[in-house]
Write a structure and sequence with these properties.
This protein is α+β, with helices and mostly antiparallel strands. It is built from five helices and four strands, in the order βββααβααα. The protein folds into two domains: 102 residues, GIY-YIG endonuclease (3-Layer(aba) Sandwich), CATH 3.40.1440; 53 residues. Strands 1-4-2-3 form a four-stranded antiparallel sheet. β2 and β3 form a beta hairpin. It is elongated, with a radius of gyration of 20 Å.
Length: 162
């Protein structure tokens, strides 16, 4: 078991990249820190593959709104340690984005399997629009449900008037 003292971690000395260069993050298991002004820890997360984690992070849209962010990271060879270490670091740093979720009862998490080529192209185009995969899919699902409800309403009205 690895002993890690959160108070001994100086996030300013960790390897890091500007948020805009997140596509250059290495393919490593890591605990990562999203740092804001004055290196304030805004978010702590874990990833078995740091570079892939940042291709579709659930907080991507939130982070894109904040200027001058950096992603610092601490690598690990044993990804099984990540959950416990992440939990300890969140408790120590108390980052605001780990403890904030807009409309917690309104949203539910799901996972979707998508062809890798389509996903890569979608991310490219959505990045140009400053939009996350999550935002895009939510918009599409809302539009679909609205269209279906309108069609159902039309069918009911037609059935009543017939």
């Amino acid at each position: 078991m690895v002993s890690l003292a959160p108070e001994q971690i100086d996030v300013t000395t960790l390897p890091s990249l500007p948020f805009a260069q997140r596509s250059s993050l290495p393919n490593v298991a890591a605990i990562y820190f999203v740092l804001g002004d004055n290196n304030q820890v805004l978010y702590v997360g874990r990833a078995k593959s740091l570079c892939f984690r940042w291709q579709s992070h659930h907080r991507l849209a939130d982070f894109k709104k904040i200027p001058e962010l950096h992603i610092a990271y601490l690598t690990f060879t044993d990804a099984m340690l990540l959950p416990d270490i992440e939990k300890a670091l969140i408790a120590y740093f108390d980052p605001p984005f780990n403890n904030y979720w807009p409309h917690p009862s309104k949203f539910r998490q799901t996972s979707v399997r998508v062809d890798a080529t389509i996903l890569r192209k979608a991310r490219f185009y959505l990045d140009e629009e400053n939009k996350s995969i999550q935002e895009f899919l939510s918009e599409q699902l809302e539009r679909y449900v609205e269209e279906r409800e309108q069609a159902s309403d039309r069918q009911r009205r037609e059935a009543v008037s017939a």
